[in-house]
Design a protein that fits this description.
Chains A, B, C, D: Keywords: Hydrolase, One-carbon metabolism, Purine biosynthesis. Chains A, B, C, D: GO terms for molecular function: formyltetrahydrofolate deformylase activity. Chains A, B, C, D: It is an enzyme of class 3 (hydrolase). Chains A, B, C, D: This is Formyltetrahydrofolate deformylase. The structure is a homotetramer of 298-residue chains. The radius of gyration of chain A is 21 Å and the shape is globular. The first copy, chain A, folds into 2 domains: 81 residues, ACT domain (Alpha-Beta Plaits); 194 residues, Rossmann fold (3-Layer(aba) Sandwich), CATH 3.40.50. The longest helix of chain A has 24 residues. Helix content of chain A is 32%, strand content 30%. In chain A, α3 packs across α8. Chain A has a 7-stranded mixed β-sheet, sandwiched between helices. Chain A has a 4-stranded antiparallel β-sheet with strand order 2-3-1-4, covered by helices on one side. In chain A, α4 links the parallel β6 and β7. The two termini of chain A are 33 Å apart. By secondary structure, the first copy, chain A, is α/β, with parallel strands linked by helices. Chains in contact: A-B, A-C, A-D, B-C, B-D, C-D. β2 of chain B pairs antiparallel with β2 of chain C, so a sheet runs across the interface.
Chain lengths: 298, 298, 298, 298
Amino acid sequence: MEVHTKSVSLSENPYKERARMLISCPDGPGIVAAVSHFLHQHGANIVQSDQYTMDPAGGMFFMRIEFDLVELEQKLPGLEEQFKEVASKFEMNWRIHNVNRKKKMAIFVSKEDHCLVELIWQWQAGDLDGEIAMVVSNHPDMKEYVESFGIPYHIIPVTADTKKEAELRQLEVVGNDIDVIILARYMQIISPTFIQHYRNRIINIHHSFLPAFVGGKPYAQAYQRGVKIIGATAHYVTEELDGGPIIEQDVQRVSHRDDVRELKRIGRTIERVVLARAVKWHIEDRILVHENKTVVFN
Amino acid sequence: MEVHTKSVSLSENPYKERARMLISCPDGPGIVAAVSHFLHQHGANIVQSDQYTMDPAGGMFFMRIEFDLVELEQKLPGLEEQFKEVASKFEMNWRIHNVNRKKKMAIFVSKEDHCLVELIWQWQAGDLDGEIAMVVSNHPDMKEYVESFGIPYHIIPVTADTKKEAELRQLEVVGNDIDVIILARYMQIISPTFIQHYRNRIINIHHSFLPAFVGGKPYAQAYQRGVKIIGATAHYVTEELDGGPIIEQDVQRVSHRDDVRELKRIGRTIERVVLARAVKWHIEDRILVHENKTVVFN
Amino acid sequence: MEVHTKSVSLSENPYKERARMLISCPDGPGIVAAVSHFLHQHGANIVQSDQYTMDPAGGMFFMRIEFDLVELEQKLPGLEEQFKEVASKFEMNWRIHNVNRKKKMAIFVSKEDHCLVELIWQWQAGDLDGEIAMVVSNHPDMKEYVESFGIPYHIIPVTADTKKEAELRQLEVVGNDIDVIILARYMQIISPTFIQHYRNRIINIHHSFLPAFVGGKPYAQAYQRGVKIIGATAHYVTEELDGGPIIEQDVQRVSHRDDVRELKRIGRTIERVVLARAVKWHIEDRILVHENKTVVFN
Amino acid sequence: MEVHTKSVSLSENPYKERARMLISCPDGPGIVAAVSHFLHQHGANIVQSDQYTMDPAGGMFFMRIEFDLVELEQKLPGLEEQFKEVASKFEMNWRIHNVNRKKKMAIFVSKEDHCLVELIWQWQAGDLDGEIAMVVSNHPDMKEYVESFGIPYHIIPVTADTKKEAELRQLEVVGNDIDVIILARYMQIISPTFIQHYRNRIINIHHSFLPAFVGGKPYAQAYQRGVKIIGATAHYVTEELDGGPIIEQDVQRVSHRDDVRELKRIGRTIERVVLARAVKWHIEDRILVHENKTVVFN
């Protein structure tokens, strides 16, 4: 099957000299002037820029810049080297990303396939501008499907006894070259060790309700209280279970006519849409994390 | 000010022979046949009907019927008397409401006025087809505004010491002729005694988040975790705080740009829209309650 | 690939005695009583029912009933035969559908694949409770993909010269056993002859804007006027181009940041969601058509 | 009635040194650097900034900056004078607005009051950070209501014969000190002369449908085709009727159960919400107009 060629065969690339810069630092006067002056001096043309200051007095400053630079590939290392002086002055967290270097995704999945299928679909339609480098699963179910797209599929079973070894194997398989790990309904707890390796680079999706229902079987509880809206939340994974910085949320209306099975079906549809949006924004460097919160420039 | 005349001056009333019937009972064969046969026999013409069966096997049956009946006013008492036989056979909870008898609302409010103002606005625009019989408040703030619409305003202060007396006074003021009590941001706990008097007739509104935030200052917590959606829930009041059957919910998107103050502003807008919808549905006899859940035929 | 087994292997079928009845007729007294009495007499148990009367005085009456009947398969022909007397008395358009007889879909597609892929995805996830009997296309592009699911793929090229022959070939291939034809971005005009064969059984999807843009390149026009919302409309195909009864619509917010390419991408996402919902409702017998309007009981 | 005091009595004003700068100019290198360098030099601290480049190659550049400047009131004239050099170099359209100088609104209204009431409500709740300087109407209906808030109400009747004189009177009444004219369901055509006086400062609201319905009685047409979504569009008024740059749009779901009267009621609710948002963004200097399109930094 050759359906995924669209994502790699753009014959004319309007973004071949495009880079993205992300900055967060303590707020103070002169940051924008310094950065834009620096880029201008080095021949870069800013084509898009967003800034946000959280709490004007003594707060944090966030910035995302897209710029074009002739001969980007060659000049980027030098630019980064010279930017260190500016960055140091303002105590910046920063990175510059060459848009033409496709981001690498690793998708973790268990048995439920809806989120995985949506990501593959959006990727092969050219809507997710990255590379699905691998799928990792504790089950063999999706092997044939995933491999039909030419994507490697790693089966790493996880049991109570083998949890530690399984995680070592996962670290080995994922390696250090992956930009984002997507938990596409991966039903295993991720250990703090694993999270530290990929801080702010692991995206999880889970269902959400207004209000939240504590305890098991949330869909059954939601049905019993007759909720009128169900939703999903995509967030970065932190040590606090389902408590990390929220990237995106969305909801859909339901009614008393929707039984538990239908609520779950609708929930799946929201989950795949919300997760795909969060992944797209991560890949396009639209998300900055500060403490337990995201700034999303979309 | 005479701006509220629209709600009473419909020169031609297309609904002057219209009634609504609400039924809930254990499911079983022949209910619809029995009810529709009864109405047909008595000359009523069914113009709208909704049914819903919760859990086919041994579940509950819910029905809402709108019908027209010539000389409704005179015939209704007889119709109700004769329906008792049908109702008894199927163990029905039921009621019939003459659409021309306007429902009476009592609105409880503290200091925040947004929900009260929305209800009065929708009422004077003719969109809430009932009568605002009174406003009850523990504060005098909205007195002049409310009375300018010709609505009685009862100030009943509540303190820790006078809680009991205040409630007795409320029961006295509200009386037994009120169809629905609306807690339009009324910031006092309602006692079980009061709730029992008006079972499934007290509607409350509160903000809602995905996920819920436990503890104080929920808007501050929501801001700190960077929620992307905030919402509101309207529900019937039960003995469990904010745990009663949900009538309606809605949400709005927010972003990192919205500070706590802006989140609260958006929250107020959703609250007034959601509460007004819930009240409209209650007044139009669109809501049936079963256990901790509503069936809303809208 | 065996991913689509979920839709056929429900080991326990809770709906094995379930049927759906759709009725539309001139409004008048006694219809509900007659129908529910008839079903009760014949041992059917009504589990869900919706009615709607369009314009009370001299209007149209619409009804959808789900009922369970022991030994449905054997008894249905007799039931239908005997219902004719009731139907005739009230001049009904009616049909009864055995839920266990899966509806047959034929999907027409050209080169754009997003709607086709969504339908196949929802079908193999068990969310579209029918059978994709065939895909018909004027292009070979999706052949391998479609056939990998075991679905027949018919290539029928269409040119200005061969339009007539192509249509005859289509009529032959589709035949009389298909319940619904889905134009999943099929970019050829359907002739009145073809439409008459499948009256109210051809569903089309197209993008929609507020306001509409007359003339070519609607996305470019929408971009130039800075629309903030784009949408999609699913409708039954009639002789008036894109003018048939609307089944479902939905929208998504966009901003000035979305260029024409991104608007198109978002448009595709809405199209596939809206089309899939319309097909689901058609398959579940939730849609009644009257003149140029649908009544959707969902 | 003194209910509108909230908007003027903020005891502590966190924005007392805040200004907003709006720039649009042909895109080119160095703009951001030049502007941010200029502001930094003059002691201003940028607290929020948005940029957008429409079509990278030879396109337009748009920028909105919020900055704080000690002793803003005194320093602003000098700052503006000195900025002219920067502005001239890049051929900028620009303006700087002192946040503490409340924007002045003139609201035009005919007989339908829902948009007017919403604007007054949001204003008195402190959500519209401007001043309602006057209401102008061709009817006396809302006089008492408007004046109860201390707002001047000018009745200027318009007939076919007096159209010209009426407009001269309007120009006189509105004058040159008004920042935005809001057509809150003002049912008279505005002449090109009037539009030229207040280019990109007249906001209109009208209902919108997917698809649009040409000819009279759009709600009746929408009902007859069974639309599932209705909406509203707020736009700047240009010489092309209802064809000016779109500021904001929103929609709500409807169903076959909603008759023409109910569709209109829902339409009114969307209109008032959408108009209020557009006015809020105009007042907060969030809108830049280019050709027939808006860039909204919200």
